[in-house]
Amino acid sequence: MDDRRVRWLTDLVRLEIELWEHVDARLKRVHGLPLASYEALDVLARGVAFPVAFRVGDLAREMRITVGGASKLAERVRAAGLIERAPDPGDRRASLIALTAAGRAVWTAATVTYEAAVAERLDGVLTDAEQQQMHDLVTRILSTGGVQQSHS
């Protein structure tokens, strides 16, 4: 039996968990910001030009989570004052979300912390070129439909 794919995926998931926990702990300690909240801010900051808003469904699609999960996440981040959430005038069922000025400032500072936390784990283990190569491979798999998004 050849279980290389099982082992590869298991190792990849373990790496993701280790990196997630390290970055999450650092963001919480320095900014009081969980990694999931940072990811929502990052999607908003990189996905559209401030202060243009987009729908919770767009956030869900970008983060590869359910609309219900994105809605709950957006509400937590809104309660922290980092995003604004308003009804979509074109669709009563949808909400529009956008970064607040405070959200933009937290995202900017937290990005520096995030980068440093990842560098602690990867620099010295992988070269910049190897890190870019890994990113390119993961991006290619995700963008070609090699990994399908779950809607459950």
Task: Jot down its keywords.
6 helices; 3-stranded antiparallel sheet; 11% strand; 66% helix; mainly alpha; 152 residues; Arc Repressor Mutant, subunit A
Describe the protein.
The chain has 152 residues and is mainly alpha-helical. It has one domain: Winged helix-like DNA-binding domain superfamily/Winged helix DNA-binding domain (Arc Repressor Mutant, subunit A), CATH 1.10.10. It is 66% helix and 11% strand. The protein is built from six helices and three strands. The protein has helices at residues 4-31, 35-47, 56-63, 67-79, 101-122, 128-143, and strands at 54-55, 83-88, 91-99. The protein has a three-stranded antiparallel sheet. A hairpin with a 2-residue loop joins β2 (83-88) and β3 (91-99). α3 (56-63) packs across α4. The model has no long low-confidence stretch (mean pLDDT 89). InterPro entries: HTH_MarR-typ (IPR000835), MarR/SlyA-like (IPR039422), WH-like_DNA-bd_sf (IPR036388), WH_DNA-bd_sf (IPR036390). This is MarR family winged helix-turn-helix transcriptional regulator. It holds the Pfam family MarR_2.
CATH topology: Arc Repressor Mutant, subunit A
Estimate the helix proportion, in percent.
55-70%
Q: Which class in CATH terms?
A: Mainly Alpha
List the helices and strands in order.
HHEHHEEHH
Give the distance, in angstroms, between the N- and C-terminal Cα atoms.
32 Å
Enumerate how many helices there are, as a single number: 6
Sheet having the most strands: 3 strands, antiparallel
Helix/strand structural class: mainly alpha
| Widest β-sheet, arrangement of strands | 1-3-2
Low-confidence stretches: none
